[in-house]
Amino acid sequence: MKWEPVIGIEAHVELKTASKMFCGCSVTFGEEPNTNVCPTCLGLPGALPVPNSRALEAITQIGLALHCQIAPQSVFHRKNYFYADLPKNYQVSQFDSPIAIDGWLEIDVESVTERIRIERAHMEEDTGKSLHQGDGGRIHSATATWLDFNRSGVPLVEIVSRPDLRSAAAARTYAQDLRSVVAELDVSDARMEEGSIRFDANVSVRPQGEEGLGTKVEIKNMNSFRSLERAIASEIARQIEVLGSGGTVSQETRHWDEQLGATHSMRTKEGSSDYRYFAEPDLLPLRFERETIERLRSGLPELPAERRHRFEAMGVDASTARTLAGADPELRQVFTDAIAEGAEPGTTAHWITGEVTAAIRKSPAFRIDGARLAELLTMIDDGKLSSSGAKSVLSELGVTSAGAATVAARLDVLQVSDTATIESAVREVLAAQPESANRYRAGEEKVLGFLVGQVMKATGGKADPKLVNEILRRELA
User: Fold this and answer.
1) Strand order in the sheet with 197-207
2) Pairing relation of β-strands 252-257 and 217-222?
């Protein structure tokens, strides 16, 4: 039997507001444990919540960017469950009246654009953080668990997709594109390594061609996009094996173990009735004025998908356009400035996402402006620099204010484009390699590459390879 995966993603986005969702405690990553806390976020008796207006604007921006409808009225609820990192024994969240509903995000899967529906985006407060002591820092091997409540009460937006994803690779693309949208809005650091954006996956499989859904399993503890893809692929394979051998899949939450490359059971999966939702009595319903929504809509930046389509219209190939659209704003400005100086968009995009990005990773202090990059690319087009020579020049441009021509002359990597000089070198090589010349004339085309290499060697690698190729063919004829 052929099986079809059905995947939905729940994203949890910590907002980078100055204070927490319902109190004035600071939101700062990396502080000493239990220093950014107060009676409200610790759930002490008598402490009352006050909603963070900036957080409410931020979730509205997220909803608008994801083409959601913004509800004119929304209500906070208490989600009741008992866990050590939840000091109140309930989480202030939303149930049947979220702030944003019925949106979508388009992603490219194997060169095909797919629209992934967004069910909802709702506002809630984050929990505390459990610090497991012992080998590996995992709960199953811990000798003790410490609790840090600095994160408790941080504004958290949960974005829930419909089960529209059909592969682990598509789920990774969706997560990456969603992260890019959030980062572009500048409402969150969106750093997986710091936990400011986290993804859970709901995975099931069904016989191919069927419309019904199989039993859903939730996967947690995926702290990178690679882990997300690996965990989902592993869970799909596990469920197919279970069903293929006549077993049944249990509805549960499973933990991804990066080292083992497999999921293992954590607990049975709760349903909404288990949480005993009821309206939060200490908070009034939220009302969103049309003027406020339109003000936030008009202030949205150009989003990655829009930017990608703009780059493609300029002649940048789809893959490079996607990478550049999600790149650092400084790199995108280099691209814009280089194009303004007359550089060809496709070539410029390839250099920025390739060589320039590699140089920055090698040395974070590397900097180059669009004008000097355009000068470098023009020198390549004019035959003044080879590809390898241009890379050497680029390395120097990142640590100097000099122009590309000046650096190329100093490094002595300018190509020889003088026809007479190259003709002389070609004739010397053909005279020294009569056997190779005869093999080429006899129809052995691949020998030409060897002869080009000999001419380049004779000119110290400075000859224009294109011109060498043309002159060699002419002389051999």
Assistant:
1) 69-70, 100-109, 112-125, 155-161, 3-14, 197-207, 217-222, 252-257, 262-268
2) parallel
Tokens of 434: 């009569």
In the three-class reduction of DSSP (H, G, I as helix; E, B as strand; rest coil), residue 73 is classed as strand
Using the CB atoms, write b or e for 98-107: b if 16+ within 10 Å.
bbbbebebeb
Short-list 197, 219, 338, CA closest to 267: 219
Long-range pairs of 83-87 with CB within 8 A, sequence gap ≥ 24: 83/127, 84/128, 84/130, 84/145, 84/147, 85/127, 85/128, 85/129, 85/130, 85/147, 85/149, 85/152, 86/127, 86/128, 86/152, 87/41, 87/42, 87/43, 87/128, 87/149, 87/152
The pLDDT tens digits for 368-404 are 999 999 999 999 888 888 888 899 999 999 888 899 9
- Measured on CA atoms in the order 61, 66, 71, 75, is the torsion positive or negative? negative
Task: Please count the other Cβ atoms lying within 10 Å of the Cβ belonging to residue 358.
Answer: 12
Could you give the CA distance from residue 245 to residue 180 in angstroms, rounded to a whole number?
A: 40
Whole-model pTM: value is 0.81
Q: Are 475 and 426 in contact (CB under 8 A)?
A: yes
Rounded CA separation 215/295 (Å)? 42
Query: Token digits for 389?
Result: 């020579």
Q: In what order do the strands lie in the sheet with 278-279?
A: 90-93, 77-80, 278-279
Two structure tokens written together for 305: 């998908």
**pLDDT of 267-319, one tens digit each?**
786 777 888 999 999 999 999 999 999 999 999 999 999 999 999 999 999 98
Q: Which two tokens stand for residue 102?
A: 């019925």
Domain spans of the chain? 3-295, 304-411, 419-476
Instruction: Report the CATH number of the 419-476 domain.
Output: 1.10.10.410
pLDDT tier, 417 (very low <50, low <70, confident <90, very high otherwise):
low
End-to-end CA distance of the chain: 63
**Opening angle at CA 332, ends 174 and 311, nearest 5:** 65
Radius of gyration of the chain (CA): 29
Which is nearest to 135 in space by CA: 11, 19, 259?
A: 259
Rounded to 5, what percent of the chain is helix, strand, coil? Answer: 40, 20, 35
State the Cα–Cα distance between residues 42 and 27, nearest whole angstrom: 14
**CA neighbours closer than 13 Å in the CB half-sphere of residue 269:** 17
Give the SS3 label for residue 436: helix
Give the pLDDT confidence score for residue 455 in this predicted structure.
81
Q: Is the dihedral of CA 38, 39, 44, 48 positive or negative?
A: negative
